[in-house]
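Summary for the steering committee. One of the milestones for this cycle was to obtain a three-dimensional model of the protein with 4'-deoxy-4'-aminopyridoxal-5'-phosphate bound, which we needed before selecting residues for the alanine scan. The sequence and ligand used are listed below.
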Amino acid sequence: MSEPRPRPEVAGMKGYHSPQVDVRVRLNTNESPEAPPEGFGAALAERLARIDWNRYPARSAGELRSGIAGLHGAAAENVFAANGSNEVIQTLLLTYAGPGRRVGLFSPTYALHAHIARIVGSEVVTAPRGPDFALGAGEAATFVAAERPDVLFLCSPNNPTGTVEDPRTVQVALEAVADYGGVLVVDEAYVQFSGREPGRFSAVDLLGRDAPLVVCRTFSKAWALAAVRLGYALGPAGIIDELHKVVLPYHLDVMTQEIGLLCLTDAAAADRRAADLVAQRERLAGRLAQLPVEQWPSGANFILFRPTGRDGAVVWQELVDRSVLVRDCSSWEGLAGCLRVTVGTPEENSLFLEALADVLR
Ligand code: PMP
């Protein structure tokens, strides 16, 4: 009997993992360090008590999508909600990429963009970011014109570098894909940490009926709901309709929809939480500046840094030995020697700084 074999593009691939080591201070997956406010569980229990458990959930998640649309001055027809922004990205790629199509990205960036693109059978084309991970409008336009990707990703603030994209680069990338029928996906998972509204640039400002643009957001970071799996895309109704054809029926279960609706009753909470974390991030950056590490300015809830004169992977292990877990990016392309620390509670940040100072002494 012969073994069943997966498709070749799957067989040859590594899975996507972040090690979950048992430590005291876990700063490796960019979650919110604080849980939703007290009373959240009780309010949710009240909502769940009214559910018809024997019925399928609202298939189009209309109420939730309207609520999310309201955050952005959009309409429900401009919102696609799914199980985390990873499922949003997967659905986008199943719809607009796949065999015979290309997906473009600027590396280093969030690994799942390329990972899912390959799983669905697309070719991945990449261009490196410039010094300090910046991406100029001219370089972006040249790459897009040469490669003509069907789907082009930008991630702003970018994971894992923390880089906030220049608005002009986003605008020019959008014009470039519009030229030949591509779609630009801007992943804004960390946008709340990049400044305050009004004034904060978001690709949402560029959305329009005829713009081939989709913006992805998540409830996993500033909304403090990583356990739930809720994310969404904003885009023109025509694109959102196509995504609804592809995603499984009833993909968003009733509890996820209820939790999303409950969160939206305090829509300012995500920005408030983000402001506290930004203050902590600046404290971390200030202290890192006194240690033998190179770091990059971040508009997200994490900081990328590189110990100078010490091997990144060894420093990572020595931090684990002190019960502190950060993300080891040292073997990722373009990130030799780099580590990424998620901003935690003030106490967690202090423990991280103490441990790092001790390791680098
Ligand atoms: N986009 C980016 C840039 C991320 O870093 C992450 C999570 N690490 C996601 C999307 C996925 O978030 P989720 O699926 O939890 O919404």
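Key point for the committee: The first strand starts at residue 25 and ends at 26.
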